[in-house]
Design brief:
heterodimer; A: mainly beta; six-stranded mixed beta sheet; five-stranded mixed beta sheet; 11 strands; about 5% helix; about 50% strand; globular; B: alpha+beta; 22 strands; about 25% strand
Amino acid sequence: MNRKIVAFKLNGEEYGLDIQYVQSIEQLLPITRVPNAPIYVKGVINLRGNVIPVLDLSSKLTLNQATYTKFTRLIITKVEEIEVGLIVDQISDVIDIAEEAIESESSSAIHSEFFEGIAISDGRIIILLNVEELLKTEEVI
Amino acid sequence: MEYNDFLELFIEESKEHLQSINDELLKLEAEPENLSIVNEIFRSAHTLKGMSASMGFEDLASLTHEMENVLDLVRNAKLTITNEIMDVIFQCVDLIEKMIDSIEQGGDGKADVTEVVRQLTMIHNPSSFQAIGGQALPEVAATAVAEELVLDTFEQSMIEEAKKLGNKVFQIKISIDPKCVMKSIRAYMVFQAAGELGEIIHSNPSAEDIEAEKFDDSFTILLLSDHEEAEIQSQFNQISELTDVLILERTKQASPVSNNTSETVVKQTETTSKAEAAPTPASVKKKHKSKSIRVDIEKLDQLMNLFSELIIDRGRLELISRKAENRELIDSVEHMTRITTDLQGIILNMRMVQVDQVFNRFPRMIRDLAKDLKKKIQLVVEGEETELDRTVIDEIGDPLVHLLRNALDHGLESTEERLATGKPEEGKITLKAYHSGNSVFIEVADDGKGINRDKVLNKALERGVVTQKEADSLTDQQVFALLFSSGFSTADKISDISGRGVGLDVVKTKIESLSGEISIDSVPGHGSTFRIQLPLTLSIINAMLIKAGEETYAIPFSSILEITEVSGEQVTTLYGQKVFQFRDQVVSLVEVNDIFKVPTVETDIELEQQLVVIARKGDKLKGLVVDSVIGQQEVVLKSLGNYLTNLFAISGATILGTGEVALIMDTNQLFN
């Protein structure tokens, strides 16, 4: 069984999201700041008439704050009823990865609730994100 | 059209007919002599019967048919309305409602109708009940009736005419012994015998088919005759090999005209010839029907979404046309603006529904409740034509049911108590809806004993809802509002009506989820009023756009009292809190920039005047300091989705003409 993964760059590293959670990929749209929201919530955007929250993925993963360039993209993801845009540095690829090529998160060196595992494809190392964990809502202040 | 489309139509229409039957029945109860009401009910019942038969819901058809029979006797003055009859008919309507509900839920609409059918048959045909005897009848009636005969208009008019002449219409189902060798011969004998008694106007299967033996073991005929049922029965009994003869009188004649048989027969032959020309009385008085179509609410939502995008694009075009300074472009964009504004009005209007959709089920409910509680009650309904957003309409029913039950059970005294205090015996409950500003108000008022302030307070103290110290300073309104706190019930004993473990707190939660508010007024000895305030619509609100720094926020109009300017010297501090005087009231000031942590914009000039939006919640006021006011605009409410929930002082978002998202402030939260 192969899985389709949307691969993207973030802070110099390569990450991947299972394509079944990806609705679309958008250019960076004007963002309205949402006061008192968690720090990694950049705000909300108008996506063809729908208001959708946007997360700064680097900030969410506590990486370095991203700088936005012309390659910066929004990955619109949807898990159950929650629709969220994720800001990433650059989309690199959509790749097929064999299930066997995925190392589970527990057996790998890195450890975080947001990581599902590591995929190795043609010498590339791709960190698979656990979207469901990522989009879990928490009590906002 | 698919079967399912028909089904949907059928359900919708059945509900309409049911509602109208319910309404009319209530009217009839008030004026039992008014036969035009009975006619109205009869017509609805008749349509309902026809519809359910053609959709194949036999139980429903047979039940409505029985009900129709009783109604027919009433409208022909053969039967006078009594309480018992009303009760049976109401029961019957309830049963029909259940069946239709079952169909709507995807069920088969089957229900045990025997008991009600038996009662109905008892009413319209007590003799047959006695003749055939106890247990057998319900089944008999149901099966016989289930076989609805389809009559053409000619046959219908023949029946109409015959009835006027004093003939009765019998539907006779004849079963022939399956072992019988020449069934067609038996059938012929039956036709022969029936012909002597009167005129056969219809048979099922047709006479040709019966002759050709193309029928199972039974067939049904419709006989016009002036003979008694017993006579017919005995005639048929003489024919052998008939296992069963079921005689059912379809309807009874208006008045006995005939003096002797021969005269009637002569007249009958005369009339059959001109029967075709005879108008059907039922069609004369046609009810006014509004021309409308049903639209799925989801489609309206889609339309609304698309429309809001159109509005956004319009905003963009306006910006471009202003920049381009092209006269032609400007003109056409202006034209488009006018059209879209009109269009917006229409689309919003389409979502509006009259509250009578909800209100109309209450008279019936009140009637039943009043009976249970043995109280005499008059329900006054006002403002049924007031319109509310469809989504609100769907949700408002339950809270209202609760309030009405409450008024009936707790609000109104018993008849004896009322008489003792010199009040009219009949209690009055008023259900009223009206517009005011951007809100719709719905009131449930009773003229009962009012709320006992001390009792409520004591209970609240007992439960620890308030402290003694707080209790002393509470206004009446605040005390009454305690009734809405959770788990609070002032009923001394739990009754079947309102003590179902749900308190008024559920009502309050529901109303608040609709962005509404509820309050209570009460005068001891004179009654209580529960007042619900609801926004006109949940999807579009009138808002004031303001700026804080570079950011735009929308404040709902309904929570703004006014916008004013406050100069530096007017502002003083109180315990470190900035306040100013506004019409003899000390109002505390909050800076939107602070509560929303708006990034500061460098300005070199310290402003002389501060722009303050006075927000209100009930009687309480709060001044919001803003940087500038852009203006008033109708905005389309959008939710922030399930990811961002419970944000402080933000209730949602909207998309502005520029495509930019602006957040909508919930100023109510600033008061906590």
